[in-house]
Amino acid sequence: MLSIGDLSKRTGVKVPTIRYYEQMGLIEAAERSEGNQRRYERHDLERLAFIRHARDLGLDIPAIRELIALSQHPDLPCINADRIAADHLVAVREKIEKLKKLEHELERIISHCDGHSIEDCYVIRALSDHGLCEGEH
């Protein structure tokens, strides 16, 4: 059995986040000791490590909840898990494209600034007037 502090140390997930995941139903409500401390088992550690990795990859709570539900049925085909990952990949690629546009616009704005004074600063003017931008970002 692990305390919530031990679980936190072993997974790198902060204690309040563990409580939040428990409240959200992503991990089962922990058993309590006689002193009312949460006590976790190995399967809780494994589940939390799964959640942590999924969050590190940027998956949202509903997707993680669905993946956890799918993991409870090991004999089912993995088409739904594949769909969740593929949908997330599409969203990540869209974010990358948006970030590339943002990068380009910031590079452009910086390149127009000659750095003499704030009064003549193109960065400040561009931030004040969206019309000075090349496009949407």
Residue ranges: pLDDT <50 for 5 or more in a row?
none
Structural class: mainly alpha
* Mean pLDDT level: 91
C-alpha termini separation: 50 Å
Radius of gyration: 23 Å
Share of residues in strands: under 5%
Helix content: 55-70%
Total helical segments: 6
Number of DSSP E strands:
2
Q: Largest sheet, described in full?
A: 2 strands, antiparallel
Order of strands across the widest beta sheet?
Answer: 1-2
Encode the helix/strand succession as letters. HHEEHHHH
Categorize the overall geometry.
elongated
Question: Could you characterize the architecture of this molecule?
Answer:
The structure is a single chain. The protein has 137 residues and is mainly α. 61% of the residues lie in helices and 3% in strands. It has a two-stranded antiparallel ribbon with strand order 1-2. The longest helix is centred in the last third of the chain and has 33 residues, at 79-111. It is elongated. The mean pLDDT is 91.
Describe the secondary-structure layout.
Elements: H1 4-11, H2 15-23, E1 31-32, E2 38-39, H3 42-56, H4 61-71, H5 79-111, H6 122-128
Antiparallel strand pairs: 1-2
